[in-house]
Design brief:
The protein has about 350 residues and is of the alpha/beta class. Helices cover about 30% and strands about 25% of the residues. The strands form three sheets. Strands 3, 5, 6, 7, 8, 15 and 16 form a seven-stranded mixed sheet that branches.
Length: about 350
């Protein structure tokens, strides 16, 4: 089968690999139909994710058709169309029973990281009964691809951890796919103001179309000053960091109001400074999280009822044999205006 493989820092190739086989009773082999590229995949290619070793097939998102199942799988059968969660969960270990599926002792974020992932013609998915979701007849498969990772990530790590509430003031630093997903789902809670920050005018314009009340371009480095003016020098109740670099985490610290919450979503490959010398007395909270996907059933219902439309995040479409080009487009989003790309496998 064809598969996109990480070969070391900055090295990537589409190559032939053996079709995966069932290894455990709870496994399923899924024939991929559509997948996508995540910002985390770019972090892997930069060498920021030590758990992902050269030779790994990347990808942890997508939809497909069950090809075969292990003897222990009872919820799915060959031919079923399924959504693949980015997090594999046994449902039985201590962390799973606490709803922390990302820390499952035999799962978590392993697809495209510690085991081969979804950017291939077939993928082996562990804990199939508790890590796959059925796709209803006639559903938009591209919307479901967005439900594998970015929508629950933006919602859980940003909106929920950030304690977004009716009438609150929210700033989302980073208008990429995750930041925009947080923007879409923050509106579930009717905040009074959602301020989107980026250095790309095209992405900020998309954010405006998606429901941002205010957009701020930080190319001049004056976003903090602008946001403080917008909030009468009070700051914001929730600041979401959706980039993963020191500069943007610093900005969140500069704009958070007393009693507010900084919700980190971004994947950080470098150390950041925490300014306790001025924040120690401000009653703020700082949260971190790897998506658990506990919200996936709710988000599925929200998509089905058209309360949220994640398909609007898709800007480019490619075939699997064009995946190198797709990565180049995604990596150069400022030039290509890419948000999310769909890779059609079958």
């Amino acid at each position: 089968m064809k598969a996109f493989v990480y070969q070391g820092k900055g090295l990537k190739v589409l190559e032939d690999r053996p079709k995966p086989e069932l290894q455990e009773p709870g496994d399923a082999i899924v024939k991929m139909v559509k997948t996508t590229i995540c910002g985390t995949d770019l972090h892997i290619l930069k060498g920021d994710v030590e758990t992902c070793e050269p030779g790994r097939i990347l990808g942890h998102e997508g939809v497909g058709i069950i090809d075969s199942v292990g003897a222990g799988v009872t919820a799915f059968h060959p031919g079923d169309r399924v959504l693949i969660s980015c997090v594999s969960a046994c449902g039985k270990c201590e962390y799973c029973r606490r709803g922390m599926y990302s820390h499952c002792t035999t799962g978590g974020w392993i697809l495209g990281n510690e085991i081969d992932g979804t950017q291939a013609e077939y993928v082996r998915t562990p804990h199939a009964d508790t890590s796959l979701y059925p796709i209803p007849e006639g559903a938009d498969e591209e919307a479901y691809v967005m439900l594998s990772d970015i929508l629950p990530t933006g919602y859980e790590c940003g909106v929920c951890n950030g304690k977004v509430a009716p009438g609150s003031t929210v700033a989302i630093v980073g208008s990429g796919p995750i930041g925009l997903s947080a923007l879409l789902t923050a509106q579930f809670y009717s905040p009074a103001q959602i301020i989107m920050v980026d250095i790309d005018d095209a992405r900020l314009e998309v954010a405006k179309q998606f429901g941002a009340t205010t957009i701020v371009n930080n190319s001049d480095g004056k976003a903090a000053e602008t946001i403080m003016k917008l909030t009468q020098q009070r700051g914001v109740d929730t600041a979401m960091e959706a980039v993963g670099i020191p500069l943007t985490f610093e900005l969140c610290q500069d704009i958070i109001a007393p009693g507010g919450t900084i919700a980190n979503i971004g994947v950080h490959g470098k150390k950041v400074d925490l300014h306790l010398e001025r924040l120690w007395s401000q009653n703020i909270s700082i949260t971190t999280r790897l998506v658990d996907t506990v919200s996936t059933p709710m988000l599925l219902s929200s998509v089905q009822s058209k309360k949220v439309d994640p398909v609007q995040l898709v800007t480019h479409r490619f075939k699997l044999d064009q995946i190198i080009e797709a990565y180049e487009v995604f990596e150069n989003a400022a030039k290509t205006k890419a948000i999310k790309v769909i890779i059609e496998v079958a």
